[in-house]
Amino acid sequence: MSMIRDLRAAVRPALRRSTAPYEYDTTRDPSASSAVVDCAVYRDGKRLSDHVSPAEAMRRVRAGGGFAWIGLHEPTEREFSGIAAEFGLHPLAVEDAVHAHQRPKLERYDDTLFTVFKTIHYVEHTELTATSEVVETGEVMCFTGPDFIITVRHGGQGSLRALRHRLQDDPELLAKGPSAVLHAIADQVVDGYIAVADAVQDDIDEVEIDVFSPAGKGASRGGDAGRIYQLKREVLEFKRAVAPLLRPMQQLSERPMRLVDPDIQKYFRDVADHLARVHEQVLSFDDLLNSILQANLAQASVAQNEDMRKITSWAAIFAVPTMIAGIYGMNFDHMPELHWKYGYPAVMVVTVAICVTIHRGFKRNGWL
Predict the structure, then answer these.
(1) Measured distance CA(219)–CA(201) in Å, rounded
(2) What residues contact 340, with CB distance under 8 A and at least 6 apart?
(3) Which of 61, 227, 362, 364 has the fewest CB neighbours in a 10 Å radius?
(4) Is the distance from CB of 76 to CB of 98 less than 8 angstroms?
């Protein structure tokens, strides 16, 4: 193991020197915006300068202390290669950060923590339909080191700009170092889960009312199944973001880590508690939607049975005049009451009487 560590120590400086020309933003079109959203040095909880390059930020950190916070949005592989070499990031973590579509997780590579968060955004809609998009997902990935934190964001939502300004207004917290930023990001992501859970709860309540209210019986004959199934799919996407994050938050809140300040670790416990509560909500959403879907299908089956009973009842009623007309439609010379003066009225009266009697029987039994 010591030989491997010595080999890594020898390779990294050479790797940094060889990749120095690719500091960042070297492959984008000049008219396109840079992948680096913001980059600054923080010392004693205060921002020392405006936007600087990642290489310049690390030079200032190594010269005077503090830490660098570099924020990127959907960088390409070459854009990120210079930063990865400058900070000695592991190639596997770099690949995950560039290509995205990762499960929430916490991994440690030497002196760097790699954390993946799934961000969830609720999509506002005037009416929930079978094709409505309820939630949008994105990703925030964090490389946390002793003197730096690099955030890589994927997706159109989950911006960290407001969070950065909020932390800059609290120098005492920001002075705790990169772990304070990591906690703030985790807290913002989980707070977003709570807001989305409340909004999804409203959608589920709306569907539940439509299914079980008397006014919704006409639409409950399978018409709400599409909306319920769409909600189930969105809840499943929600669960994929929440459930895998439970273990990383538990590790950050309970396991001592050299890169996490002990005072900040206490705050991770609060985030873990909130996450556990959201996870319970999401599981209850899934169970409730299963029950609503089963009730909706049962209502559709009951409605179909009612329709079949009504059709059968009317078919039985109309079978009486059909049978009588069929009998008297036979061409025989000798038939009862065939030449009787009151034969036709008598047959009509008997037919109507039988039909009314059958109708009253079906009505009394609830078939009509």
Answers:
(1) 21
(2) 346
(3) 364
(4) yes
Tokens 């560590």 label which residue?
A: 5
* Separation between Cα atoms, residue 99 and residue 75, nearest integer Å: 9
Residues in the chain: 368
The pLDDT tens digits of the residues spanning 231-269 come to: 888 899 999 999 999 999 999 988 888 888 888 988 999
Count of other CB atoms within 10 angstroms of residue 182? 24
Tens of pLDDT, residues 264-298: 988 999 999 999 999 999 999 989 988 888 888 77
Neighbouring C-beta atoms of residue 343, cutoff 10 Å: 14
Calpha distance 99→14 (Å, rounded): 26
Q: Return the ∠ at Cα 273 (arms to 271 and 279), rounded to 5°.
A: 100
Return the closest-CA partner of residue 243 out of 217, 271, 280, 270.
280
Would you say residue 27 has pLDDT above 90? no
Kind plus residue range of the DSSP H or E element containing 349: helix 343-364
CB within 8 Å of 151: residues ≥ 6 apart = 69, 70, 71, 72, 140, 141, 142, 160, 181, 185
Q: Residue 252 phi/psi, 5° resolution?
A: -65, -30
- Dist CA 134 CA 83 (whole Å): 36
pLDDT digits (tens, 9 = 90+) for 172-186: 999 999 999 999 999
For residue 68, the SS3 value is: strand
Q: Is the overall model pTM greater than 0.85, yes or no?
A: no
pLDDT-derived band at 214, boundaries 50, 70, 90: low
What is the per-residue DSSP string for 163-228? HHHHHHT-HHHHTT-HHHHHHHHHHHHHHHHHHHHHHHHHHHHHHHHHHHSGGGTTTTTTTTHHHH
The token duo for 253 is 């809140």
Largest CA distance in the chain: 124
Query: What residues contact 193, with CB distance under 8 A and at least 6 apart?
Result: 120, 238, 241, 242, 274, 275, 278
Q: Please state the separation of Cα 289 from the chain's center in Å.
A: 15
What is the SS3 assignment for 117?
strand
